[in-house]
């Protein structure tokens, strides 16, 4: 089997390594078949899509809607690399699943309006499948309404016609979409469990996801509902596209 590629952008080793471990667990892949590249650590270089079964993208610290002058040199490089990669991915309808930062990358590629209108604090929210979502193979095992972990400073306000809305939320209208038949992006985090998101809460305290003094409130917020279904999205993707 050709491996899958996981593109990561977290600079902090503890949450970065835990994210990789979570992707391994929920996809059911081993390290030989899920190759990780930490894009923040250096240039991505050429990616030969024919060498891979598909691509995953993890969450990350970058916001597509940040003013250009406030973006670091690393963010500018990573965004340019994603833009070039997605030109080929979308043109070929190559299997791609971006979790959280996938909305920023794929959404930007489509020309979607991305801003802070529908930002969500770190918490558990209820996500609802659309009719198209209920018919999509990645969501087949999920109920019509399911809890999911969120925590983002930006979101898609207007989804372009080229994309198909698969899931929505009360506080964020675009929680998952598909482009073509094989390119996916989620706003929620299908790769997270409560321990993993708690690690991120502690690691990114002071990064603007919650106010000073709200650490314990945020840790409690991700325990308000059990999240048990979203990991199946990653396994369904891996099983569907393994080749």
Class per helix and strand makeup: alpha/beta
Total strand segments? 11
Looking at this structure, what is the CATH superfamily?
Answer: Class I glutamine amidotransferase (GATase) domain
What is the overall silhouette? Answer: globular
Largest sheet: 9 strands, mixed
Poorly predicted sequence stretches spanning 5 or more consecutive residues:
none
Report the CATH topology name.
Rossmann fold
CATH class (first level) name: Alpha Beta
| Residues in helices, as a percent range | 25-40%
The structural domain count equals 1
Mean of residue pLDDT? Answer: 95
- End-to-end distance: 5 Å
| Radius of gyration using CA atoms only | 16 Å
Describe the strand arrangement of the main beta sheet, using strand numbers.
2-1-3-4-11-10-9-6-7
Continuous helix count: 7
The CATH architecture would be 3-Layer(aba) Sandwich
Order of helices and strands: EHEEHEHEEHEEEEEHHH
Structure notes:
With 243 residues, the protein is α/β, with parallel strands linked by helices. It has one domain (4-241): Class I glutamine amidotransferase (GATase) domain (Rossmann fold, 3-Layer(aba) Sandwich). The protein has helices at 13-27, 73-92, 101-110, 131-135, 194-203, 215-221, 231-241, and strands at residues 4-8, 34-38, 54-57, 96-99, 113-115, 120-129, 145-152, 155-158, 163-169, 176-179, 183-186. The longest helix has 20 residues, at 73-92. 43% of the residues are buried. The mean pLDDT is 95.
Give a brief outline of the structure.
This protein has 243 residues and is α/β, with parallel strands linked by helices. The chain has seven helices and eleven strands. It has a nine-stranded mixed β-sheet, with helices on both faces. Strands 5-8 form a two-stranded antiparallel sheet.
């Amino acid at each position: 089997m050709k491996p899958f590629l996981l593109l990561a952008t977290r600079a902090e080793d503890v949450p970065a390594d835990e994210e990789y471990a979570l992707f391994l667990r929920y996809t059911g892949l081993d390290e030989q078949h899920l190759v990780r590249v930490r894009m923040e650590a250096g240039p991505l270089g050429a990616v030969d899509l024919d060498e891979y079964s598909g691509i995953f993208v993890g969450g990350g610290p970058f916001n597509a809607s940040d003013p250009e002058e406030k973006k670091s040199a690393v963010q500018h490089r990573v965004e340019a690399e994603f833009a070039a990669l997605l030109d080929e991915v979308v043109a070929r309808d190559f299997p791609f699943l971006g979790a959280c930062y996938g909305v920023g990358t794929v959404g930007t590629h489509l020309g979607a309006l991305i801003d802070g209108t529908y930002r969500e604090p770190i918490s558990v929210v209820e996500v609802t499948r659309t009719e198209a979502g209920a018919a999509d193979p990645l969501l087949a095992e999920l109920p019509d309404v399911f809890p999911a972990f969120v925590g983002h400073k930006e979101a898609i306000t207007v989804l372009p016609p080229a994309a198909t809305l698969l899931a929505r939320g009360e506080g964020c209208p675009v929680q998952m979409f598909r482009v073509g038949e094989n390119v996916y992006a989620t706003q929620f985090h299908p790769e997270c469990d409560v321990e993993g998101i708690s690690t991120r809460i502690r690691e990114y305290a002071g990064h603007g996801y919650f106010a000073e003094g709200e650490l314990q409130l945020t840790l409690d917020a991700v325990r308000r509902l059990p999240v048990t279904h979203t990991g199946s999205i990653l396994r369904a993707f891996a099983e569907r596209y393994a080749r």
